[in-house]
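Section 3.1: Structural characterization of target chains.
Under the original work plan, the team committed to producing a structural model for every single-chain target entering the pipeline before any wet-lab resources were allocated. The record below documents one such target. The sequence was received from the expression subgroup and is listed exactly as submitted; it comprises 394 residues.
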Amino acid sequence: MTGPSSSSWGPLHEAPSETTPLDLAVVVPTYNESANVLELIQRLEKVLAGLHWEVIFVDDDSPDGTADIVRKQSARNPRVRLVHRIGRRGLSSACIEGILATSSRYVVIMDGDMQHDEAIVPQMLTKMRDGGFDIVVGTRNAEGGSMGEFSKGRVRISRLGQRVSNSICRCDISDPMSGFFLVDRRFFRSVVRSLHGGGFKILVDMLASSSRPVRFAEVGYTFRTRRHGKSKLDVNTAVEYFFLIIDKATHRLIPARFAAFSLVGAAGAATHLLCVWVMLHLFHVSFVKAQIAATYIAMTENFFLNNLITWRDRSLRGLRLVTGLLSFWIACSFGAWANVIFARALLNEGMSWYFASLAGIVLSSVWNYSISNLFTWQKKPARMTEINMVDEAY
């Protein structure tokens, strides 16, 4: 491949031999990490000297030009490869695609934000080969590890996540929330079809998907402070983690989206009952009027929470938010009507107002979920521009 002059991009790099198997592949999921790409490649070249290796950046179409920088590097450095995804996002799914894109038996997953210490990768690889492990985890919580400059609040959240994760992973790993680990691709292939594939905690997903005890080891490292770019941690990170836990804890018996819809519905139910109480006791309106008003108030609250959480991957914005709310009201009208009729019948039979009101909510919830999924937040058919595009440079 003919690339830029050496004065533009530095000296040529020797490509991994086509006849010698790769010792290691490094998979780096990226989104807006343009300021870190060059330094990360340089650091990897230093610590992996003497090994046959490659690095695969899986970029979710970063608006800051991350993919362009990687592409230019791959034109000059055959060790660097790019998987450029269009219309798709997600750290876990990016890691899965990166692992599937390499022929190396051993694959390191690490972030592109320079917070993971690449210097321990050779130690992880040696431990993997000598011990025959499935996974070797870079840990912040065991001997030689540190959370670095994490705030106390962030550390407490991490510890809580550790306890929850270990309950579904069925193994006592010190840092299941780690995004820095080495995996044997033979183990990966044994679990890949059972992976949830969503969210950010791909290690938890792999551990919880194994049908047998996972053979693992750990290597401590100090978590570094991000120097460039912004953290991707936000409310969606917690939501995605919740989805993963539900998926693994119930063995997919309860759809994670329905679980989220049910939690939102529980919040709506509390709002509904409060509204009915206020209208009955403070405004002295009839039960039917109170039930109708409370139904639409709770329905509106549920719409915005579901848009933020349950269907965050299809989140409506701008004008579509307004039309979505209208379609949600219309689509759920039958459920609301059944809610009111059923609740009134129970009230006439002598049931207390709060039990009658709650029974009406339960009746309409399954209908509302189905209608919402089909109409309000319907999944659009994939367009050519939304299909994964893979640009692999050798």
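The chain has two domains: 6-254, 256-376.
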